[in-house]
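Sharing a chain and its predicted structure for anyone who wants a worked example. Both blocks are below, sequence first, tokens second.
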Amino acid sequence: MESHELSIPDFFDPVKIPDIWPVNYRAVAEEAGHWAEKYQVHPAVYDRPRIALLLIDCQNSFCTPGYSLFVPGRSGDAAVHDSRRICEFIYRNLIHLSRIVVSLDTHKAMQIFHPAFLLDVDGKHPEPFTIISSEEVAGGKWRINPVAAQDLELPSGDANLHRYLLHYTRTLERSGKYQLMIWPYHVMFGGVDHALVSSIQEAVFFHTIARQSQAEYLTKGDRPLTENYSVLAPEVTRDDRSRVIAEPNTAFLNSLLTYDYVIIAGQAKSHCVAWTVRDLLERATKQDESFAEKIYLLEDCTSPVVIEGGYDFTDDADAAYKEFAESGVHLVSSVDPIVTWPGIKL
């Protein structure tokens, strides 16, 4: 495979990154065809080695200012710059990327991490960014909304609902995961906030046409009884009676194992990106002990959750990335040519 980078198409406008607009698919497809001819870009099916780019939750909710869970980082506009660098990385490295895989966090109103699902002792819903601890659940401060549970056809009865919420919060805490946090309603299925950032959607589509490689879109997070930060697996998979409530995406894990290298970027560094990488290391290395060395994290294309006047997960994110590097994962910059990355053989 050739190792040179391509120039960025003239139609790409970084000023439009924070905006939402319709992609002109016909014009982009025509340009991608011209691009492939100009640079003699061969179809991705002939790639050796095969490289996957995994873009995690590059959606308006997280990446567009003013939307429900915009990821500002400590700079205040971090996700916007991450999106720009992701687009530029795709265009420059088009000839190296065999397939782009996009995850879409996908929620509905009544889920365990949204306000409508829980009630306090006064019958009021929790405010966004409230932490729900197992100690508070055990003490009766929080309970599952019985009407929501009935609507979702969950096991009825206050005792059953209490037992599950206690089981869920304790499982999170005992496994070393984040405690249950109530998030603002976000990435609501079918809404504008659920969609990919327009500029990223444009770049992904351009790659699909130029490389004749169908982009893969994965939804996650629509199970009402558990959060699903990781693309590979939900936070909790069994209820208090050991019944399955959600399952790992084994098929996707197996597909990632077929690639020679996997590049990862997206939002948020502290949550969905970090937990995806943790799961990938835990699960993939059981089948391929050297798989950690095949993972490349674009450090300048992801940012941590920082809540104004509240929680700052920057240190958690940095600690996770340090842990990943110690496991053999490569931390790289999107502006450096792929051919210069450690361990890459093109």
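Comments welcome. The longest helix spans residues 158-174.
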